[in-house]
Amino acid sequence: MARTPSTKPATRKSASSAKVGTTVTKDNLKALGVDRLADLLVELSEQDAVLTRKLRMALTATHAKDRLGKEIEKRLRTIQRSRGFLPWDRIKPLATELDALRQSILDDVATTDVGQAISAMRLLVELAPSVYERSDDSSGYLSDVFREATSDLGSLWGRQAGRDPAVTVRDLLTLLDNDGYGTCDHLIASCGEALGAAGAAILRSTLLARLHDLPASKAKGDYRTDIGRMQTLGHLKDLADAMDDVDAYIEAVNLSERQSASIGDVARRLLDKGRAQEALEWLDRETDETSRFRWENDDLRIEACEAVEDRNQAQSLRWKVFQERLSLPHWRAYQRHLSDYDAIDAEELALNHIRNFPVRGVALSTLLEWPALNAAARLVREHTTELDGRDYGTLRPAADRLSESYPNEATLLYRLLVEAVLDKALSRYYPYAAKDLASCRLLAPMLTAPNGMETHEAFMIRLKAQHKRKLGFWTLVGE
After folding, report:
1. CB half-sphere exposure, 346, CA atoms < 13 A
2. Residue 86: beta bridge partners?
3. What is the pLDDT along the chain (479 residues), one digit of tens a residue?
């Protein structure tokens, strides 16, 4: 009996075509036509207040752009007057709405009326305290929007023709003085154009006068006095950056009682201006007592040495940094500046240094990154007792990396991880320990057990004898 040809391929194709046609995409929605889409939006807007507001703003931007700024301000004042606490699930939607309003002020309102845009953006910035007081912005969604709005406000001030720099200084200081949440941290940085030379001079003299009137710090830990001085000096440094004036920045640092904390910041700015010798002089101010930033400044010192063509000193510094913290980027930079002949001896010297580095976990990670797997395996064999089984971020990747070619050493690492969890009865880590023990079991047939290393069977007997009461762990092992 003849079989009827199958129609399944055609059916699948039809189903696929139908799926494409019903997927909510821009092209598929266009196919509905303007009238049908309008009907759907009207119907949905009757049930969704957020959508209604979005549609109203979009219509205003299209048909009454001159009223858009007022509409935005109206919405912002409604939010400002609200008093109910904002639960966590309403934080992101509010941040999304505020960011859309911010973007509309910047892109739509400012094109027709910069003054109105400034008014609306300032209202958005000043909205921050009332919103923070009734919400928990641990996600940072709201603070990101408010900081963006603050920077936008500074830019809008710069776009307003004929704006008096003194007015900008007054408005800027008002916002800074009333900012208890760090919302205006980037305001001065965005005001370079708005201030100009005249406004910068007014702001600088005002800040210096304030600093002069503040009492000197009386003692270590005098936070109330220190915070006022630190904030004013921070404003002076921000102003210097806004005006691209490194000398003004240095002057602000010199007025501080904590110059050592800014050594790297000054050096960076001097290097960017091509003043490498001065950068080195600042870096030379570091002492053993004030060198907690030294590691951050090592690269600046190397860059400065290269800039003044003291390449021997730059090489010496690269090697020193590598020796101190096994920094492979510094080693590779050091190696690139060597001849082929010198590089061979230097490589062996570097590997020996890594092998003998006292912090064995760091040495192990570095050998694996080199990569020098044989040396890493040797380190595990010879210094097992010096490795910390709680350092799972180092030992587990190392064990995984060594497992294929060095099963003995990988097993030693997995065992360290298992015993570290069981010795401290860290029950929340039992699932990880059970997986590490499973890895030991998988590697067991490949063990050669040199130098008296326990067999897997002996290890299991000892483990069960020492930790037989940890039933939660053994249940996971059984599973």
Report:
1. 19
2. 135
3. 444 444 444 444 444 454 556 787 888 778 778 777 777 777 776 776 666 666 666 666 565 567 888 999 999 999 999 988 988 889 999 999 999 999 999 999 999 999 999 999 999 999 999 999 999 888 899 999 999 999 999 999 999 999 999 999 999 999 999 998 999 999 999 999 999 999 999 999 999 999 999 887 665 656 666 788 899 999 999 999 999 999 999 999 999 888 888 999 999 999 999 999 999 999 999 876 555 566 779 999 999 999 999 999 999 999 999 999 999 999 999 999 999 889 999 999 999 999 999 999 999 999 999 999 999 999 999 999 999 999 999 999 999 999 999 999 999 999 999 999 999 999 999 999 999 999 999 999 999 876 779 999 999 999 999 999 999 999 999 87
Q: Give residues with Cβ within 8 angstroms of 124, minimum separation 6.
A: 76, 98, 101, 102, 105, 146, 149
CA-nearest of 219, 211, 225, 118 to 161 is 118
Tokens of 147: 């900081």
| Tokens representing residue 224 in the block | 């109330």
Residue 410 · residue 402 · CB < 8 Å: yes
- In order, the DSSP letters of 373-415 are HHHHHHHHHHSGGGS-TT-HHHHHHHHHHHTTT-HHHHHHHHH
Quick one: tokens of 401? 């990396």
